[in-house]
Amino acid sequence: MKTLFSGIQPSGVPTIANYIGAIKQFQTMQYDYESYFCIVDQHAITVPQDRLKLRERTRQLAAIYLASGIDTTHSTLFIQSEVPAHAQAGWLMQCISYIGELERMTQFKDKSSKQQDGISAALLTYPPLMAADILLYGTDIVPVGDDQKQHLELTRNLAERFNSKYNDILTIPEVKLPEYGARIKSLQEPTKKMSKSDSNQKSFVSLLDPPKQIEKKIKSAVTDSEGIIRYDKENKPGVSNLLDIVSVLKDATVESIEKDFEGVQYGEFKSFVAEVVVDELTPFQERYEHYMNSEELDHILDKGRDQANMKAQKMLTKMENAMGLGRKR
Ligand code: AQP
Asked: Which GO terms describe its cellular component (predicted)?
């Protein structure tokens, strides 16, 4: 059976963009693969985090994965920092990465330009750690949103470099983007991507927002003055973004939604979008509450840590042997 790996940072509560771009696909895909779902808390600390909030979000993210349908009788759910092989293999990957290629990463450029109190070295070395996360499991497929495509390309390059320099032991992973909704945009600035760590709360709908707040945020989404519900990413990014969200959540084509809303005012359309999002998130939030309030969550994470440790340690040993580290094992 082929292997699937996916990671999400507990850098905020996941948004509907993380859901549409990544999480929504996991439930059905997991059974076709040996699946690993990881809460990548070591990635989150590449920018400053409040330690108590980070703990809380890590737990929330575990419950979110479970509420989205991750079945831990089949798949492994675990926290990155509880599996030491990630940081260890991350170092090996750093040793074969070039500063120039890391500096070219769009996310590094974006995030470093926003840091006021100094840029951590880890913001630059984030992609080699991400490569380690993926490569440790012999991963064949990584389902992600469009923003992670560049990091995935680098992961492939690093794996090929390692294989040709040392020993042919790493699997070259494929990226799997969703057919629609790979880049959901900010509700306030629809030319940039929606992000869970955006300081403007109105720019995103979080998966845990109550219905009233969801409605308020969607109703204040930036659109345009044309007044026609029409898909045109270039000239009407706000309306197109709302169409993308509805199309994925309702599993309907954009054309059919355009047709249904011909001659309808933006206000009415936005109420519909809010209703669709609330309908999707209400049962999701009930499942989330169940997991957050149960002891089961910790047992699942303990089991996931042990399973991930076993798999990752084996690959780490192979990588260290290939590079000549320590004594031969
Ligand atoms: N705007 C987006 N549209 C579709 N998919 C998206 N993803 C992120 N933003 C969008 C996908 O969500 C998964 C988890 O993302 P992550 O936690 O690894 O971090 P990220 O890609 O940096 O996402 P955020 O929300 O922007 O987080 P912050 O604000 O912390 O940087 C990934 O599969 C990602 O592609």
From this structure: cytosol
Nearest residue (by CA) to ligand 1, atom 34, is: 145
ipTM for the predicted complex = 0.96
Q: For the chain, what's the residue count?
A: 329
Q: Does residue 157 form part of some domain?
A: yes
Total domains in the fold of the chain = 1
- Spell out a b/e string for 285-316, using b for 16 or more CB atoms within 10 Å of the CB, else e: beebeebbeeeebeebbeebbebbeebbbebb
Ligand 1 cavity residues, CB under 6 Å:
7-9, 11-12, 15, 17-18, 20-22, 144-145, 147-148, 182-184, 193-197
Residue at 265 is within a domain: no
In tens, the pLDDT along 79-137 reads 999 999 999 999 999 999 999 999 999 999 998 988 778 899 999 999 999 999 999 99
| Dist. CA 265 → ligand 1 center (Å) | 31
Provide the whole-model pTM. 0.94
Residue 82 is given by DSSP the state G
